[in-house]
Amino acid sequence: MSPGSTPSSGQSTCFRARLRTAAAVVAADPPLPVRGDLVDDLRALAAQSPPEATLVVFHSSVLYHVPTP
């Protein structure tokens, strides 16, 4: 679909179904947003997560603040 075009009825239905499914997944196991200093707090916070968990750190400029190992 090109920018500015209107989705067909089938595309809209599919999109809404996918959006509802995604919302249900997040509602069932919501993320834990934590405010803190990335450099000072991340290591201790990551240590609290279960070993089988996939740790996701997100911010639009997060890598700028992480020192090179």
TrEMBL record:
Q: Which InterPro entries match?
A: UCP012608
Under which name does UniProt file this protein?
Answer: DUF2332 family protein
